[in-house]
Amino acid sequence: MNWGAVIAIYKFEMARFFRTLTQSFVSPVISTSLYFVVFGAAIGSRIDQVEGVSYGAFIVPGLIMLSVITQAISNASFGIYFPKFIGTINELLSAPLSFLEIVLGYVGAAATKALFIGVVILATAALFVDVVIQNPLAMIAFLLLTCLSFALLGFIIGIWASNFEQLQLVPLLVVTPLVFLGGAFYSISMLPPFWQTVTLFNPVVYLISGFRWSFYGLADVPIGLSLLAIGGFTLLCLAVIWWIFKTGWRIRN
Amino acid sequence: MPMVEIRDVFKTYDGGFQALGGVNLDIKEGEILALLGPNGAGKTTLISAICGITLPTSGTITVGGHDVVERYRQARSIVGLVPQEITLEPFEKVINTVRFSRGLFGLPRDDARIESILRKLSLWDKRDTPIRALSGGMKRRVLIAKALSHEPRVLFLDEPTAGVDVELRRDMWDIVNELKADGVTIILTTHYIEEAEAIADRVGVIDKGQILLVEEKDSLMNRMGHKELRVELDEPLTEVPGGFDGFDLRIERDGKALVYSYDTSAERTGIARLMAGLTDAGIAVRDVSTVQNSLEDIFVGLVSAKQEDEA
Ligand SMILES: Nc1ncnc2c1ncn2[C@@H]1O[C@H](COP(=O)(O)OP(=O)(O)O)[C@@H](O)[C@H]1O
Ligand SMILES: [Mg+2]
Fold first, then answer.
1. Ligand 1 pocket, B48 CB below 6 A?
2. Which class for B64: exposed (0-12), middle (13-18), buried (19 or more C-beta within 10 A)?
3. Residue A181 gets which letter from DSSP?
4. How far apart are CA B311 and CA B308, in angstroms?
5. Nearest 10 degrees: Cα torsion B51, A97, B154, B70
6. What is the mean pLDDT of chain A?
7. Is residue B16 lining ligand 1, measured as CB closer than 6 Å?
């Protein structure tokens, strides 16, 4: 195992992040504040409480998930797509590296960035509403697994994409709708029965539900199912990456 | 054991284009091999297959005795590559990108070494400059620094002097000579024949994905080379003198020089006969000199001979 290389890639990627630290930091703070103004104040004044939690506090876990998922995907997909695009990937391919080390470096860095942004959002949210974390360990576990698994997904997208449009396509057409419809801003129980059933096919529901459970003890689906879903999703991504590694798909043409 | 051993390597790209059509080549440890070939000959593809950037469709390649696919770690850890295209992270500082290259090879940080490489390449003053702010020549220097940062035993230079300034070219040859003195094996591709002629120990000629020949540069030039014998005359001639059938003769300098072009590999060069004939004809000779033809002539001859074969 070439750990030196993993660290080199990780540091190089994090340096990119720190170069644009203000931007990385300010934009989640602003967008979170906007969500609180729009959803918290406007809608919250009508909804008041969801299952005993103020609406503002209720949406915090969903907001964090929304940003963490988007950030993990976009950081990881861009992280590996950019070297492909400018050709520096050849340096990785000609170095004594296994694909595993490349994945660890890029996915590790992307997951770290997403985690950082998740924490920033949590802190921002705490300024607006009373955030309670009943199950800190579960909260951290869900957050870490989400960062990791969606960074893996982002990595796959970055390898797959052959232009910038494709890079944007999956997050835009698949992930964002799934997250928005995944109960980030409402409880599934607020939907008509038919839509409740439909929603259960959305994997993000399990994530947000589990994550929210770690805050308030409220869950749309059993917590075990949530863990199973995120665990299964991580394994699926790992399997796809293992296959890419075996075949050299889209990398060593 | 050759440092690099290439056996029956074929490469057909996804689109169906065959870029390498059965390449066999041994590269000796410590030599400088120039791979000479026109654009599209397959030079970059061959290097990419050796370095792990692309997978050969079939055939085997070893570096330092290690198969580049099965034992890629061992093989790649001794290989450095200066790519043909300038591929650099635009926003990163020079020194960081060079450190990164060393890190990728799993080597511990070595600031002294990096500094000496950057100084040698006149990059030390630019170490904190973001790459996008560098000129093209400077970027190429960065690529060389990256390749040297991990102390390769085999160095590939893919068209290193295409479009670079004289200064960089000179620095590059200095570095190549230093590396050679350290026993590093160097493979450079070029379509400039002077480059191969000036620096290589051996020359390989590649065209349309096939190696046409590999030979010691000197023996290649001797074997294939034509030499010209210039005979300076006291009295100008108005035409090529008669009586020299089968001699490739022409006059130059308004008849004050007679030039005889001959094949050095021929059993009899005919020089003695020419000189005797001139004396017999009463033509007074002031001076003689010989000029060796360049690799370029050899190369053009080879490629066109091959095309005629195919036609
Ligand atoms: N990725 C690729 N896909 C398809 N064809 C390629 C690819 N790379 C190179 N080629 C083709 O293979 C041939 C050899 O290219 P290359 O190895 O770059 O030649 P050279 O370096 O000698 O100029 C060219 O005809 C080129 O168009
Ligand atoms: Mg080339």
1. no
2. buried
3. T
4. 5
5. -70
6. 89
7. no
Q: Is B38 in the pocket of ligand 1 (CB under 6 A)?
A: no
The tens digit of pLDDT for each residue in B179-220 reads 999 999 999 998 777 778 888 999 999 999 999 889 898 877
Please give the Cα distance from B5 to B60 (Å, whole number): 8
- Token pair for B73: 């770690």
ipTM, two decimals: 0.87
The residue behind tokens 């493979």 is B187
The two tokens of residue B292 are 């060796």
Pairing of strands B32-36, B226-233: unpaired
Chain A residue numbers touching B101 (CB-CB < 8 A): 91, 95
Is B294 strand, coil or helix?
coil
What domains sit in chain B, N to C, each tagged with a CATH number? Answer: 4-222 (3.40.50.300), 226-292 (3.30.70)
- Kindly give the parts of chain A with pLDDT less than 50: none
Q: Where are the beta strands (DSSP E) in B181-255?
A: 185-190, 202-207, 210-216, 226-233, 248-252
Give the number of C-alpha atoms closer than 13 A to the C-alpha of residue B207, restricted to the C-beta side: 15
Residue spans of beta strands (DSSP E) within chain A: 49-50, 53-54
Q: How far is Cα A162 from Cα B237, in angstroms, rounded to an integer?
A: 69
pTM, to two decimals:
0.84
Cα dihedral A76, A105, A228, A216 sign:
negative
Q: Does B281 touch chain A (CB under 8 A)?
A: no
C-alpha span between A202 and A37 (Å, rounded): 27
User: Poorest-confidence range of A141-145, B82-86, B223-227?
Assistant: B223-227
**What are the domain boundaries of chain A?**
3-247
pLDDT at A232: 92
Instruction: Give the helix/strand (H/E) hosting B45.
Output: helix B43-51
Which pLDDT belongs to residue B294?
Answer: 65
The sign one gets for the Cα dihedral B50, B160, B181, B178 is negative
Work out the pLDDT band at B242, boundaries 50, 70, 90: confident
Eight-state DSSP code of residue A250: T
Exposure pattern of A26-58 as b/e (b: 16+ CB <10 Å)? eebeeebbebbeebbeeebeebeebeebebbbb
A193 interfacial to chain B (CB closer than 8 Å): no
- Residue B238 has a CB neighbour count (10 Å cut-off) of 8
User: What does the pLDDT read at residue A211?
Assistant: 95
Go through chain B and tell me how many residues it has.
311
